[in-house]
Amino acid sequence: MYTLQTKQLSHRFGNGQMAVDHINLQVPDQSIYCFLGPNGAGKTTTLRLLLGLIKPTAGTINFFPNHPSPNRVALMQRIGACIEVPSLFHHLTAVQNVAICANAYRTPKSRMDEVLQLLGLADAKNKKVSQFSLGMKQRLSIAIALLHQPELVILDEPTNGLDPQGIAEIRSTIIELNKNEKITFLISSHLLSEVEKLATHVGIIHKGQMKFQGTMTELYQASSKAAKLILSTDNDEAAMQLIATHFDMQPIASGALIYSSIDQSLSLKINRMLHDHRIGVSQLQWQDNDLETHFLRLIQNPTL
Ligand SMILES: Nc1ncnc2c1ncn2[C@@H]1O[C@H](COP(=O)(O)OP(=O)(O)OP(=O)(O)O)[C@@H](O)[C@H]1O
Ligand SMILES: [Mg+2]
User: Fold this and answer.
1) What are phi and psi of 152, to 5 degrees?
2) Domain span holding position 61
3) Ligand 1, atom 5: nearest CA belongs to which residue?
4) Ligand 1 binding residues, C-beta < 6 A
5) Which ligand has the minimum distance to the alpha carbon of residue 18?
6) Are 23 and 95 members of one domain?
7) Does the reported pTM lie above 0.70?
């Protein structure tokens, strides 16, 4: 079941640029969905569309399709968000910042302490935000986003600008909240390495278009399918025919023994078979089967 679905969601800016181009987001219940894409891909614009901060040019947004909210106010009470730079009052303490939002949401004081505790800020709650590190500010922003006990939390690049320890802290906090509080997360990021450690599901966006969407496992599978086997032999013509006969595989490029394959164990079998037919193999190589290369391919030239 999905917490959020969009259909053909699009946004064209005044200058004519299609920043979000027919996106079909599918964020499953209780997932950590990472929206991954390079700078300028359209991540923030998509998240702003979801939160009603800008209007779609086309398409629909459907939150909680199985138990929808009767109106926009009720809907927003189920969603927590932190988009781009956290807007905190730096001259106030952490707890004063939380209190301002708690008043707006009419949340009890006990919940204020709870969110500060959840984000590891209980000891720093009386410190002024101006004395906070960037990581602490990020955690405070997330604490505020959690105040009204949302079912879905939308965060725009929550680890941006943080050092490795700060990144690890935010990551483990998100994973814990997802597991213990059953919160669904939609998080944008431009770092594959981060997404790999955090996401259950991933959507890859580039130039406003969704290039891949699925579970992390599916992304790994797609990446290994995109791998290529490159062969050089002392008789390529004969090798090509033997591979066609024994493995029902045709090269994807003419004039070279380049195969796209799904199973790396095939390389051993092919090598053995060619050897049995007295064909000398001078090169047998797998290429592009790591996730990063696959990701770069998706956002550079998807036809490759
Ligand atoms: N207000 C605006 N007016 C015109 N174009 C805009 C506006 N905001 C964003 N864009 C353009 O829309 C595209 C998507 O921008 P967006 O901020 O959504 O990307 P992003 O994926 O969040 O990038 P980043 O990783 O840098 O945060 C970019 O080409 C950007 O220049
Ligand atoms: Mg952005």
Assistant:
1) -125, 130
2) 2-221
3) 13
4) 13, 15, 17, 19, 37, 39-45, 190
5) 1
6) yes
7) yes
